[in-house]
Amino acid sequence: MNIIFITGTDTDAGKTMLSLLVMHALHGRDAVYLKPVQTGCSDPDTDSDPAFVHRHLPDGLPTTPAQAIHACRVPPKAPLFAGEPVDFQAAVNFVLAHAAWYSWTVVEGAGGVLVPVTSEKTMLDLALETKASILVAGRAGLGTINHTLLTLEAIRARQGSCLGVFLLDPDDATPEAERNENIRAISGISGFPVHGVIGRIDNPLHPPASVLAMIHRVLATRF
């Protein structure tokens, strides 16, 4: 099963945009996007991450945004604290059931890898138990070295399969020299590849070909 689990170094690190770009790169290749646990959402069909992805794909998602979600909670908190308990095994089965039907399954986690889904299971457990390949979204600017290295260390400690890192800079606020310093530090210390920086995307419905080319290279080397 080709399952790509997209995690972040923190909340709002760029997971949803990276998920959208991966879905763009997989256009025409029988791909589905899932957000197993969505928090901070009152209407999954209009204000959720799947709703954003659906609106910015030329053909939309193969499911409705609501169908891309296993558990939806209103409070913007970690799933463990966001209302009714999440059935972790049901979330695993939700991902695997879609992966059995589609050639590619893109799964967006909630927050970072150690965000608790239950009192015993984290987002990293969800990635591991679905045997997904993990792709990390990190910020391009100040503080990203520490946050990204900690994320990669957690994945390595659990022997997760990691595709590497993309740094995101949606406002193009990080100078190129600082971007390059962060890339060298993260890749050099962790041993995982940093595939590049994704800057501002003015039209998410039609992302730059250069950005999609970076993602194609990652997919081509591992799948």
From TrEMBL:
Keywords: ATP-binding, Biotin biosynthesis, Cytoplasm, Ligase, Magnesium, Metal-binding, Nucleotide-binding. It catalyses: (7R,8S)-7,8-diammoniononanoate + CO2 + ATP = (4R,5S)-dethiobiotin + ADP + phosphate + 3 H(+). It holds the Pfam family AAA_26. NCBIfam families: bioD (TIGR00347). SUPFAM superfamilies: P-loop containing nucleoside triphosphate hydrolases. ATP binds at D49, E108, G109, A110, G111, L168, D169. GO terms for cellular component: cytosol. It is found in: Cytoplasm. InterPro entries: DTB_synth_BioD, P-loop_NTPase. Substrate binds at T39. GO terms for molecular function: ATP binding; dethiobiotin synthase activity; magnesium ion binding. Mg(2+) binds at T16, D49, E108. Pathway: Cofactor biosynthesis; biotin biosynthesis; biotin from 7,8-diaminononanoate: step 1/2. This is ATP-dependent dethiobiotin synthetase BioD.
